[in-house]
Structures
1.
Amino acid sequence: MVYREGEARVARRKNPPKERARKRSPRKPARKSSPKERARKGLPRTLGVRGSPPLERVAVTIVTYNSAAHIERCLDSLFAQEGVALDLVVVDNASQDATLQVLERYSDRIALIRNTDNRGFAPAQNQAIRQTRNPWVLCLNPDVVLEPGCVRSMLDAVAERPQVGTVCGKLLRLASDGSRPAPPLLDSTGMYFTPTLRHFDRGSNQPDCGQYDRAEFVFGATAAAALYRRVLIDELSMDGEFFDPDFFSYREDADLAWRAQLAGWKCLYVPKAVGYHLRRVLPENRRTLPPVLNYHSTKNRILLRAKNIGWSVFWRTFLPATLRDLGIVLYVLARERTSLPAFSFLWRERQRVWAKRRQVQAKRRVPDRELARWFRFRPASFPAEPSPMKIAILGTRGVPANYGGFETLVEELGARLAGRGHQVTVYGRRAHISYRQPTYRGMRLVLLPTIARKYLDTVVNTFLATLHVVRSDAEVVFLCNVANSPFAWIPRLAGKPTVLNVDGLDRRRRKWRWMGRAYLWLCEWLALVTPTEMVTDARVMRDYYRKRYGKRSTLIAYGAEPRPTRDTQVLERCGLRPGRYVLYVSRFEPENNPELVLRAFEKTKTDLQLAMVGDNVYRPGYVAQLKQTRDARIVFAGSVYGDGYWQLQNHAALYIHATEVGGTHPALIEAMACGHGILFLNTPENAEVVGDAGLPFEPRPEDLLRQLERVLRDPALRRELGERARRRARERYNWEKITDQYQALFQRLCRP
C-alpha cells in the first residue's frame, strides 16, 4: 500500500480486484497459506488457526531518510515479533539512496507514504501516527533491531498499569555493520534530565552489567524505540500533532516526555524488552555533526523549556542552566555561527511558542515540586514496585462506605493501597459503623467513640484518632475534610507527614449556621499551615486556594469503576424498571437541590420514573417535605450503598446532578463511568468534571425541564452523551491512576 504526500491514495496494481475476481474460478476456493508461507510473509502465525484468540494489534511508525543500509534489518526484526500483530506505516522523507527500492520489496506488508522533501522526523512521525488508530503505537528508528519478544514484553508490563502512557525497553548499541559489540554496550534505558536542563540516555555507552535490570519509572523514552498509548497520544496532541513539528528533529522526544510528566502520565522502563540501536548522534561529537542538526539542537533546547518549565523548576535550576546557556551562546558566537538563526527563529515565533505553552500548561496535573525530583545530576528513576508503607487514614465515618464521597474515596483508595502491599489503617466512628471485623478489604480498622451530633461528630472523633495515631507506627497520615485541619499538626509533632484533602468549600453549605460557618472559615485558614501537604480534588479548588491565599496544592481527583450487577432486587423493591428511570443521588440538603429536581420532573410528560436516592438523618423534616410530592412516578429509595447502589447506577436511563457545593462528586463520575447521559447544574466544579459529556442547566426548574425534555426526545443524543461520559471517566477518573498519584505523594513525603 503506497501513499504520496500524506494522501490516502492507494497505488494502482497490475491486477485490480475485479479483474482478479473474474479470473478466479467460482468453484475453486482460494488456497489457504501454510504456516511457513505466513511466517515468510510476516503474517501473524495464529491468524487462521481455528480456536486461537486474535492477537493484540500494535501500530509501528518509522521515518526513513537515506536508510537503505539499515531498514531491511529493522523490518525483518519486526516481522519476527512474537505474540503480537503489527501494522506498519513507513514515511520516507525523500531519500536519495536505495531506501525506496528496499521498501518496495515489503510493499504488501507495509503502508508507505512518500514525501517529496525532507520534512523532518517530528512532522513525518505525525503523518504516520495519523494513519493509525491502534491502542498502542510504537515509534521506531530505521536503525533499530528488536529481539523477537520485545513488543510483547512491553505490552505485558503495562497490562495492569493504566497510568503508564509510554514504555521503553533496554536498547543496546549496534555497530555500523550490524554486528553486536561484545561485551554489550548500553545505548538507552530511558531518559533523564540534569539541573542544566540537558537530557541524556541512562547508561549510554556503559557496559551492560545488569545495573539496569529492574523495571523502573523513568522520565521519558527515546523516540528511537518508544511505545505510546493511544489515550496519551490523543490527550497530548496539539492541533492534531503529537510530536511538535517546530522541533523538526532532535529533542522532540524530550519535549513529549516533559509534556507527559506534566499531564500525570508515567513512563515505564522494561528491561526484558531488548533492542539494538545504531547511535550516530551523541553529545560529545557535536563538532562533527551537520550544521543543520546543530541549529535544531540549539533552537530546540530553548523551545523545550519555553513550553514546559514551571516557576519552581525554573528557580531550582536557574544557576546551572543559566551557566550552561551562557556557554552555548559564547560557543555559537565563536565557533558555530550557523546556529545563530535559531535565536532569530525563537524571537520571530515567540507568540506561537507562547500559545503552545498555554496549551501545555492547561493540561498540567502535576505540580513543579513533584517534577523537580527528576532534575538531578545523576540519573533519576523510581521503582515500579515501591516498598511498602504504613498509612493511616483519618477524618471519615470509616469503611465500609455508607455515607458520602469521602467514605467512598477511603474505601476504594485504601483497598487498592492494601492490595499493593501497603499496611493501611482506617479510623472510623463506632456510632456509625456496624461492621465489627478487624479488617475489611485488606485494611485494618480502628473504631473510636464520638459524639454523634451535627457539630461534634467529626471533630471529636478526629481529635481522638490523631492522638491514637501518634502512638502508632504509621509513617504517613491521610486526613480527609477541611474541618479536620485544626488537628493536622498533632501527627506532625510526632514526625509523621500529614496530607489533608480539603474537598470543596464546605462553609457555603446552607445547613451551617453562623457558628458552623465561622469554624469552617477558621479551618480554611488553618489548612494553609497545619498539614504537610494539601490535596484538592478539582482544578477549580486548586485555583481558589492559589489565587486567594497563594497556597499551592496537589490536584488528585476521585475515581470511578463501575461494578457489573446481575441482581435487580433493589429495583424490584423500589418498583423501578431497568432502563426506564432517571437517577438522582445525593444527600438531601438544600445546596444539593433535590427540590429543584423534583419540581422540574413533575412537569415532564414522560413515562419514565425518577429515582431519588439519598437521605438526611440530621434534617428529617426537610426529607419529609420532599416526600410530599403527589407525582406517582417519583420513587424515594433512601440511602443505598454497596451492590444495591450499583444496581441503581447500572440500570438508569439518565442521571441528574444538581449539587452546587463541593469539588469532584463520586456519584457523578460513577454515573459517567456507567455511560449515562448527564444533566448537571452549571457550576465551575461540575463543568470541569463533565466537560462535553453532559448538558448543563441553570438553578431554575424551567431550565432543567427544558434540558430534560430535550434529551428524552432524542435517544441518539442520550446515547452520544453516554459514550462521551464513559470515555471521559475511563481516561480521567481511573482509580488505579488516582491510587498511583496518592501512592507517589505518600512515597515522596515519608521516603524522600
2.
Amino acid sequence: MPRVLIADSLSPAAVEIFRQRGIDTDIKTGLSKDELIAIIGDYDGLVVRSDTKPNKDVIAAAKILKVIGRAGIGVDNIDIPAATAAGVVVMNTPFGNSITTAEHAIAMMFALARQMPAADASTQAGKWEKSRFMGVELYSKTLGLIGAGNIGGIVADRALGLKMKVVAYDPFLSPERAIEMGVEKVELEELLARADFITLHTPLTDKTRNILSAENLARTKKGVFIINCARGGLVDEAALRAALESGQVGGAGFDVFTQEPAKENVLFGAPNFVATPHLGASTNEAQENVALQVAEQISDYLLTGAVTNALNSPSVTAEEAPRLKPFVALAEKLGTLAGQMLDFGVKAVDIAFEGDVSKLNVKPLSAAALAGVLRPMLAEINMVSAPAVAKERGITVSESRQDDSPIYDNLMRITVTTEKGKRSFAGTVVAGAPRVVEVKGMDLDAPFAPRMLYVNNLDKPGFIGALGGLLGEAGVNIATFNLGRIDAGDDAIALVGVDQEPTPALLMKIQALPHVKEARALVF
C-alpha cells in the first residue's frame, strides 16, 4: 500500500480521497526541516501547499519518494532540479484556482479604475472627497495581456464581457488560439504602446524576470494601469514606484511581490497603489478545488501510473496508462539493451515509432527508452530524470513517427550515436509482451529474459554446438535461443536467454571461439 504524507493543511474531503482509494495517509503539518527529513524516507508521496519546502536535503532523504504534489500553482518552494535528479515527479494543480486568480485581477482593475481603497479610507475617516476620486471606465479601454495561458484566457474572456479590447503578448500563443480567444496577438512593444491596462499572467523565468523594466515602463501609454497577480519579480518594483510618482503609470495593483511575506516594499505608500497579501487563490472554492485535484492526481499516479500536471515528466492520462504500459516496458528494455551494447560516450539518441505505437502519446516512451540507454552508466536513473540528465550531458534526443510499419503492427527503433558510430536496435510488442526483432541491422525474434547472452560471430558451421558445449560445461542452462544473420558465412548474432549469469571467465572462453567477434552478458 502506498504511503502519502500531507505536510500542509488539506481539506478533509481531499484526505478522504486518498483513504477511499486505499492509500495510507498521514497528516503532519508544521514540521521543521529536520523533522521532515527524519520521516520522509517512509513515504511514496508528499503533499504540500506553500509552507513546506521540499529542498534538496529533504529529497535526498526521501529514498522511496515517487511524487510531490503542490495544492496550487506556484512551486517556488519545491527544488524541482533535485526532485528531477532523484526521479521524483513534481505535480501542481494549475486549473483549480484559475478562475479565482483571474477574478482577483479583474477586481484589481476595478479597484484601480475607481480608486476604491483610497476612497473607502477617506470616506470612513469622515471626509467626503467626491471631487478627489475621479475614475475611469473600463468600457472600450484596451487591456494588454502579458501571458495568454489558462488564467490569462479567463481574464480575456471577462474583459471582453466588459466590452474592453484585448491585445496579448505571448510567444506561445498561436494565431488560431488568439482568434479563438477573441484577442489580437501583438509583440510586447506594441502592447506597451497601446494598452490602457496591463495585466501579467506568466511564470517567473529568466526571460520574464523584470519584463516590465524601467525601459519598458517608459514605453507604456502615459497613465497606464498595471496589475500583477501572477509572480513577484515580473515588474521592476523600484522603477514602478518612480513611474507612479511621475504619473507615467496611473495606478498599480499587486497581489505578489519579489520578497514575500512583503512586510516592507518600495511600492508601499505610492500614489494609487493597491496591495493584497497574495490572495489570488484565496477563496473557499479554489482551496477546495486544488486540494481535491492534488489528491486525485497523486492517487492516480501511485495506483495507475497516470501523470497529470507534472512539471518534470510527460503527462499520461488514466486512460492512456494501461495502453502505454507494454510499450513503456518495451522502450525501457530496448533502451537497456542498447545501453549495455555501448563502450563509448553517447552523443545522440533517436527513437523512431512505427505503426500503431506512433499514434500513442510517445513522450513517456522516449523518456523510458532514454532511461534504459543511460542506466548501465547511471544506475539510479529513471524516466523522470533521464531527459534532464541527457540534456546536462549534451546528448541530443530526437523522435520520429511513421504511420505504417512494413512487417509489424507496431515497431520501436532506438538508434544510438557514439563517438565511434551508430548502433540500432528494434523491438515490438506481441500479445502484450516486448520482443527484440532487430540488432545491428539483423532480423531476429527474441523475448527478453532477465539474463541473456549476446554473441556476434561469422555464420560458420559448428558455432552453435561449440557455444552450447561451453555453456553446458559452465553449468549455464539455456532458456531461449534466437539467431539472426545477414547471409550464410556473413555476420550473425545469437541472443540466448540463460538461467545463470555467465561469468567473466566464461565470456572470455566464448570470445576465444573461432569466428566470434563480440560476446556480452546482458541483464534486464
